[in-house]
Design brief:
By secondary structure, this protein is α+β, with helices and mostly antiparallel strands. The chain folds into 5 domains: 123 residues, Four Helix Bundle (Hemerythrin (Met), subunit A) (Up-down Bundle); 186 residues, Alpha-Beta Plaits, CATH 3.30.70; 50 residues; 179 residues, 2-Layer Sandwich (Heat Shock Protein 90); 133 residues, SH3 type barrels. The protein contains 23 helices and 22 strands. The chain has a 6-stranded mixed sheet. It has a 5-stranded mixed sheet with strand order 6-8-9-11-10. Helix 3 runs antiparallel to helix 4, helix 8 crosses helix 10 and helix 17 runs antiparallel to helix 21. The two termini are 68 Å apart.
């Protein structure tokens, strides 16, 4: 395995686990400690410890082991829990995020990180001791040393015995057996280890990437059997791993010897050499082995010899089956580097353009069979396009789930009581969009917490619940994704915003503005109504950045606010920035593309139905704009013009064009820096004949045309 690829996988997995840990901790803070959440936090810490241990990152292992130990004592009820612990565990998660960042950048642990780790470990240790309060039921298939009554047939050794016959291909998978032993040593002391080389072939037949060695270990520790099993969970499949607790019965060692491929006498001598058995105990094992040479050694032997109860064996088998089923399910998911997906989309885009060119060429030559073949190819290209774009679609919850912690911390800093409610986290959009909306949403959340949601006493005095609510909601609407960020705060003070705009010269004194126009003033650069500058806001930097960021994604943002009741910021964004279904229209020899999802209908433009900037269509007035006038295209329009009706959000407008050219797949090419401020155009695409068509920015056009109509 490529070490660099393995390191990237480690970083990605660790961050996913830390995100799950944080979510579980926030659930516990809200709903109280419960079995599932405590287990989730423990599993995350334990898995990270196991993963980093394979890479020899001892400083991360040390810290996660300290955290895991405390969580284990909470699980077993040895430490009394309270919500004050949550902040400490969240700090531990932040420290682990910092350490994972060091793994990603391949930088050593800094002095500041060492000091922070020691501080947190000290705080974790200070949680001991406490009044015992059982939080979770004991694991019925975990057999610890203290649970074993050796009886008269128990061996004298007071250490764990671990027998390892790892899968031959572990080296090919990038696993180093020594890393497991180092990890094990961090949990206790390895008293003895013996390497078995019986399976080594002659040198000329030896595969340097195959593991032929076996290992027998004596391990001294007070950890549970489950903890030891988890050390080897990454290599469990295909390996033979047997763990015997201290003072195990003679029959267990007999079963061990019978199950291993080496000769009983040789194994017995090794067990004596490392202190697992005495000579007398070995003789007893061999006597039992000779007495029952054909006895099976799994399941039935353990039950028959009363080593473990039948219910425990059944539970173990059931759990093992569940683990394998989960492993099979997880193997169905393949993680792919985002750059490879981007490269695939680029290739699909070129394929779409080439297919369009082939379609035009076949039509020009009037080759019937070629046209039929091209039609079949077109369907396949569309399917490939949809499949490729589908691979880039991810749930918006990837962004939403970053905010519970931010809301918690900011609300605490401001002394406010705020709950974050999330709806529509499963709504999907392009991964590139997900990555680029995080910052705008962060600005909006900070403003909502600082400006909009009132302190508890103010809310109660105004008849509101003491706890404020910030809500995220996402859903699909007419080929777009809508993201709403709403709060139940004091709303936007219309008069105050207008007064500040007049003061800054943005609005003339006495000028009449609609509510929408007043609300949009907060997007002006440097605009702020804050009385004082704080760590969060007041400098007028934020909402103008939000608007520019959303517009850069070919989207729009609108505001609904009721003074005293709250505010809703509504973002509308395209589902993808790569390839879209478009509708091609022409004006004076120029080609334009309208996103197909926004096209409602097409009709002939009847001159007699035009009244100023409105056209009457089936008895309803519709604002419209001529693309010829908008883009100042010279020449005279044809006698018969066409009307394309488009709708974006609640705005419905008409676009007057010379002719309709039909549907196409448009590969979106971004505009150059020179045209970045150009309105009404969101991008370009290459047509099958090699010419360039402009993709219309329908959100901008609908806003301009609707505003003009209202003003009239």
């Amino acid at each position: 395995m490529d070490l660099e690829a393995a390191r990237k996988a480690l970083v990605q997995e660790s961050r996913e686990l830390l995100s799950e840990m944080e979510a579980a901790l926030l659930r516990m803070e809200k709903d109280g400690f419960d079995d599932e959440s405590v287990h989730a936090v423990f599993r995350a810490a334990h898995t990270i410890k196991g993963s980093v241990g394979l890479f020899g990152l001892e400083h991360v292992v040390k810290f996660t082991h300290a955290l895991e130990s405390i969580l284990d004592e909470i699980r077993s009820g040895k430490i009394r829990t309270d919500t004050g612990m949550i902040s400490l565990f969240l700090e531990c998660g932040d420290h682990l995020q910092d350490l994972v960042g060091g793994i990603e950048s391949q930088t050593p642990e800094t002095d500041a990180q060492v000091a922070e780790g020691e501080r947190l470990i000290g705080l974790l240790k200070a949680l001991r001791p406490g009044q015992s309060r059982s939080l979770v039921a004991p694991d019925p298939i975990t057999l610890d040393a203290q649970e074993i009554d050796p009886g008269p047939d128990g061996v004298a050794g007071n250490a764990w015995h671990i027998s390892l016959r790892l899968a031959p291909d572990v080296l090919k998978a990038g696993m180093d057996p020594l890393s497991f032993f180092r990890y094990l040593a961090s949990m206790g002391e390895i008293l003895g280890i013996e390497v078995l080389d019986d399976r080594l072939p002659p040198v000329d037949r030896m595969d340097p990437e195959e593991l032929y060695l076996g290992f027998e270990l004596q391990f001294q520790s007070d950890v549970s059997r489950k903890a030891i099993e988890d050390v080897f969970e990454f290599v469990a499949e295909g390996s033979k791993i047997r763990i015997l607790p201290p003072h195990s019965r003679i029959q267990e060692y007999k079963a061990l010897i019978e199950a291993l491929p080496e000769s009983p006498r040789r194994l017995g001598e090794i067990l004596v050499a490392i202190g697992a058995l005495t000579e007398k105990e070995l003789d007893r094992v061999l006597e039992l082995q000779m007495a029952k040479p054909d006895k099976p050694v799994i399941g039935s032997l353990l039950v028959e010899e009363e080593i473990v109860p039948p219910v425990v064996v059944a539970a173990a088998l059931h759990k093992q089956k569940g683990t394998r089923e989960r492993s099979i399910q997880e193997n169905r998911v393949v993680k792919v580097d985002a750059r490879k997906l981007d490269a695939l989309i680029d290739l699909v885009g070129e394929l779409v353009i080439a297919n369009a060119a082939a379609k035009i060429a076949a039509a020009a030559e009037r080759a019937k069979r070629s046209e039929e073949a091209i039609e079949t190819l077109t369907v396949l290209v569309e399917n490939i396009r949809d499949a490729a774009l589908g691979m880039r679609m991810v749930p918006i919850g990837e962004v939403f789930h970053r905010f519970p912690r931010l809301v918690r911390d900011l609300a605490s800093e401001l002394g406010k009581n705020v709950e974050l409610v999330i709806h529509g986290a499963e709504t999907e959009l392009d991964k590139s969009m997900v990555e680029r909306i995080a910052d705008p949403l962060t600005h909006m959340v900070r403003n909502a917490l600082d400006h909009a949601i009132e302190p508890e006493d103010v809310r109660v005095a105004s008849g509101k619940p003491a706890r404020g609510t910030l809500e995220f909601n996402a859903y699909h609407e007419t080929g777009s994704i809508v993201i709403e960020v709403s709060d139940d705060g004091k709303g936007i003070d219309r008069e105050r915003v207008l007064a500040r705009a007049v003061e800054r010269g943005i609005v003339a004194p006495g000028q009449e503005l609609t509510d929408r126009e007043i609300h949009n003033l907060i997007f002006e650069p440097g605009f702020s109504t804050a009385e004082a500058i704080t760590n969060l806001s007041g400098r007028g930097v934020g909402m103008d950045v939000v608007k520019r960021s959303i517009e850069a994604l070919r989207g729009e943002i609108e505001i609904e606010s009721r003074e005293g009741s709250g505010t809703v910021f509504r973002l509308r964004l395209p589902l993808t920035l790569a390839i879209i279904d478009g509708f091609l229209v022409g004006v004076g020899g120029r080609s334009f593309v309208v996103p197909m999802d926004l096209v409602k209908e097409c009709a002939d433009l009847v001159v007699s139905s035009i009244h100023g900037d409105l056209v009457v269509l089936r008895g309803e007035s519709l604002p419209f704009i001529r693309l010829r006038d908008l883009f100042r295209i010279s020449g005279s329009p044809p006698e018969r013009e066409s009307l394309v009706v488009v709708q974006y959000g609640q705005n419905r407008i008409g676009l007057v064009v010379d002719h309709l050219a039909g549907e196409l797949q448009a590969v979106i090419k971004p505009m150059g820096l020179v045209f970045r401020e150009l309105k009404a155009i969101s991008g370009t695409t290459i047509l099958g004949n090699g010419s360039v068509a402009l993709i219309l920015d329908v959100p901008h056009l609908s806003q301009v045309v609707s505003s003009r109509s209202l003003a009239a």
